[in-house]
Amino acid sequence: MIRIENVRKNYGTFTALDGLTLNAAEGTVLGLLGPNGSGKTTTVKVLTTLLAPDSGDAWVAGHSVSKQPELVRRNLGLSGQYAAVDEKLTAFENLHMVGRLYGMNRRNASARAHELLADFRLTDVAGKRAGAFSGGMRRRLDLAGAVVARPKVVVLDEPTTGLDPRGRLDTWEVVADLVSAGTTVLLTTQYLEEADKLADHIAVINHGSVIAEGSASELKNRAGSERVDITIRNATDLQLASSILAAQTRGSSAPDVEPAALRVSVAAPGGHGVLVRVLAELDARSVPVTEASLRRPTLDDVFLQLTGGSAQPQGHTRKDEVPA
Ligand SMILES: Nc1ncnc2c1ncn2[C@@H]1O[C@H](COP(=O)(O)OP(=O)(O)O)[C@@H](O)[C@H]1O
Ligand SMILES: [Mg+2]
Predict the structure, then answer these.
(1) What average pLDDT does range 187-197 have in this prediction?
(2) Ligand 1 near 79 CB (within 6 A)
(3) For ligand 1, is residue 107 a contact (CB within 6 Å)?
(4) Is residue 315 pLDDT above 60, yes or no?
(5) Which CATH number does the domain 2-85+133-221 belong to among 3.40.50.300, 3.90.76.10, 3.40.710.10, 3.40.50.1390?
(6) What is the model's pLDDT at position 117?
(7) Distance from residue 318's CA to the centre of ligand 1 (Å)
(8) pLDDT at 59
(9) β-strands 227-232, 209-214: how paired?
(10) What is the per-residue pLDDT for 324?
């Protein structure tokens, strides 16, 4: 339903998309995960025909963005990085206007607006001006606007950036509803947790190309094995705890020691048994333990491992990049 093939896009001499290739099957959510400046919005603009690729092509529902932009737009709804609602209009008027722009008559536009206000839990504020809305309500209204014409594909560019936790949860819910109704979604995000929660398939991008893809659990598996983390009470036991961890994992990898946190951790394939043996040994040697855990790698660990760095902003930043 979504296909992006070897797309390159330069801004002057700066390469924003460097041979990007992505696919999403019908009814699935493709999560495009990357830090600020990695090329997410540029990808969205190419896919939604707002920006022509320098080379390569993209298809929405089988229609090429470069050869059939009209057909692409007819099959697609967009909710941009900065929610585009008319602040002077009420929630109802915003949706009614979008329906009219899509060529619906007044009655149909009105019926569709009411239906969407209910779906996106905005009925209570239908008559309120959007300018008075919270970030989460504004985002829901914007999402509702994106699906007025029942598109097959919906593109959401960082739908929860800048929202409070409540707004984020609400947005996740409406995205999940869209998907259960059969819509194919491309969602960009900087949040590993969000990609983990919503996406069937995750593509991690860095400097305009995909550096890893798979399901959340596939990506986590690539970040290596589980880890055993032990926090002890007394700094004088750090050395002993570290040697016990090393012994119980047969020295397969050196334990990390964080003296300030009184913590030692080690990669532990088959972690459960290791944890049990480590605790037994610490107990036998009378080392007081304050915390012990078995931790699966998070998507954050994946990103770190893939890029050798944290998810920091990259590329050149623009002055007009203000949060919604
Ligand atoms: N219109 C533009 N002119 C020049 N550089 C741009 C323009 N738009 C984006 N960029 C640069 O291209 C890179 C990718 O931008 P963008 O696709 O917006 O990233 P993201 O959405 O992942 O934060 C960034 O380094 C950004 O500064
Ligand atoms: Mg962006």
Answers:
(1) 92
(2) no
(3) no
(4) no
(5) 3.40.50.300
(6) 96
(7) 8
(8) 98
(9) unpaired
(10) 40
